[in-house]
Amino acid sequence: MRKISKLLIANRGEIALRIMRTAKEMGIQTVAVYSDADVKAPHVRFADDVVYIGLSAADSSYLNPEKIIEAAKISGSDSIHPGYGFLSENAEFARLVQEEDLIFVGPDHHAINIMGDKAISKRAMIDAGIPCLPGYQGSDQSDEILIAEAKKIGFPLMVKAAAGGGGIGMRRIDCLSELSNSIHMARLEAKKTFGFDTLILERAINRPRHVEIQILADSFGHIVHFAERDCSVQRRHQKVIEEAPCPVMIPELRAKMGNSAIGVAKAVNYIGAGTVEFLLDKEGTFYFLEMNTRLQVEHPVTEMITGHDLVALQLKIAQGESLDLKQSDIKLQGHAIEVRLYAEDPDDDFLPCAGPVTKWIEPSFSGIRVDSGIESGSVVTPFYDPMLAKIIAHGSCREEARRKLIKALDNTALFGIKTNRDFLIAALKNEQFINRKSTTGFIAENFAKTPIQNKNIDENIYTNCAIAAVIQHISAMRHYQSVASNMSSELLDWSSVAVLQSLRCYEINGRQLIISISSPDKAGGSYRVSLLEHEINITVLEITTDRAKLIVNGRTVSAIFCIEDEKLIHIAISGATIFKLTNIIAGVENINIDATASIIRAPMHGVIIGIEVTEGDEVKKGQRLVVLEAMKMQHSILAPIDGSVQTLNVKADEQIATDDILLEIEN
């Protein structure tokens, strides 16, 4: 048995912070590593010791095994926890750590090598008698063989990167014409992210549930499972909402899946925390997908229904301690649901967003847990995964947890960049989700053609603008009072001659709204707001620096806000609306945006990793022009029209910003 005294966390953001908290509770010193992009990150400040590991790009820092190990030596660490993502499932990294006589908080490199490769692991599971989907996991990776095997399997099918996870290098293919491009893009993503471009093929199950079993195994041969999590709500094969237990689970099925998961661990002599993932069809038949040889993003829901700290158990196992748990010791209490807050735009195909966080406000009440890696003033870069935080609710039953989570999200706001907060609220309120019928097709079936944010703004635009105007007006009055000499608050909004009127002009969704605010109540606190033909009465019950409670036309409304300057206000209003308004009464700045179809602009921040045309080339509508990498995903930029490439403005490996002109096409 070898005690851990100083632990280096080879990760960043919320998972680095989460591991450090448990380590510190156990009396273990913590070491953070950081890149140029994370110099001021919260995980760096929270650690007991820090080591710089390189440039912002992940392959120059967090994905560089030699730099991580050197950081452990410099800091005097005796152990490394990889978190999830980055090097957490890199068998060579685990081997190097152990060769340096450092404790690796995870399984040994043999288990990672088998389970980290979907092709190898699937062959091993078939040999072990674990139920698997029909597919191809052979060593011949030529396009010809993959296409031939795909025809044998039939459509729909999945093409998957054999290495890694998180939906990277994964495509669903519904017909033969999609196959060639999907193979090309999956290979590109896999090679760029994991360093390997081996692919497997699997039959696709229509509308399955994604159900996973959490297991822990110690070095004495004891293995227990901590029941299941349902992770069916996904977009681009990346999980968005997770819950435990699975809403349709029955004891007999849990026992079967749990025993299969333990069988998977036994087949590879597994030690540590791991997750065995299955697809569950509507008949109750389940199939092995993969095993993640690490802690999962969604581990908090398991912790909340079992009462066990999985990180603490990981550290104890890594120290050579026994689990000292029997299967009968794992009791389930209530229900937990987790949502992942991403920097992304749900109304633009969930494309990732980057930029500064003007204000981060998180909920704080009983039954809610927030694991975040950001704060006000943070900068979300295009170099890493766009997940910013996890918000988890626990209740005595599923419905209680769901309602608590909606309330928590209503009291959550991130201003400065777009997030999926409004989408998460809409998903939790969806009848299919409420009725326990969500499958992996949930998002595509319910939200593919339904914009979330703009829809909510449009439905309540006049009321929302009136609320924003009153909040900004009061904040301005308070500011004037703070810089004035001996001005009583009773004189705010007061006039001895007539009712004062304040004018504001807001621009939102391309519209300009002129708003008149008057305060007929000389006692203060009540306002009449006029815009177009609408008149809205607002009474302010309470207002702080970032929260307000008001009565709007007789109904109570809560708002979270951030006034960035005298013109710009960011606001989140109860009922799932987050937006920003610019007061342009002092003058309008005209910004000309070339909307011509032939101007091809970058849809997001990222790096150009492939250019497939040159100036003068003739292209067809839908042809791939450029490949852009942003936040670990590869995106094909396609030609919107037939024509000739006239101007090419970018080159390979160039960093570009949202709306940068990539090229121009003349038809």
UniProtKB/TrEMBL annotation:
Q: Which Pfam families match?
A: Biotin_carb_C, Biotin_carb_N, Biotin_lipoyl, CPSase_L_D2
Looking up CDD domains in the UniProt record yields: biotinyl_domain (cd06850)
Q: Where is the Biotin carboxylation domain?
A: 3-448
Co-factor(s): biotin
ATP-grasp domain ranges (all copies): 122-319
The domain of life is Bacteria
Transmembrane ranges, per UniProt, are: none
Domain Lipoyl-binding, by residue range, is 590-666
Q: Does the keyword Signal apply?
A: no
Q: Which UniProt keywords apply?
A: ATP-binding, Biotin, Ligase, Nucleotide-binding
Q: Gene3D superfamilies attached here?
A: 2.40.50.100, ATP-grasp fold, B domain
Which PANTHER family did the record assign? CARBOXYLASE:PYRUVATE/ACETYL-COA/PROPIONYL-COA CARBOXYLASE, METHYLCROTONOYL-COA CARBOXYLASE SUBUNIT ALPHA, MITOCHONDRIAL-RELATED
Recorded protein name is 3-methylcrotonyl-CoA carboxylase
